[in-house]
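re: that chain from earlier
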Amino acid sequence: MLQLLVVLLVVFTQAIDTNAFNNLRIYQVMVSSFQDGDSSRGYCTGYGPSKHCGDLRGIINSLQYIKDLGMNALWMTPIFNSNGGSQLDSTGYFAYDYFNVDPKFGTNDELHELINKAHSLGLYVILDGVFGHHKSGNVAGSP
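^ sequence. v structure.
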């Protein structure tokens, strides 16, 4: 896990102009509740009457809208595989596998597509992750 963090920090610091931090306008997306771009996933979870069906396709479909709002960065809540169906599992904060996108949200290929499209629009992409805790039980090892 430390190796992944080091790689991310090196890539992150090399890829961003540090002066740009002064001008960041960040749009935060709660992935699970933002927009349902692929209704075939159909996991729809939530508390009480609220049903959340958000996914990466919904974000991809909304990138131009986010750009048109004057934003230049997109911050997404965790998208890591939580390998479960409970309400908390679908938030991405109780990850089981930090190397793959949760199938409820999309695929690794869709994440790459999202990042490439965002970058083509001049948007930075920030992935949220909580590495201090994870889903109970076994966590998937490094590929």
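The first helix runs from residue 2 to 15.
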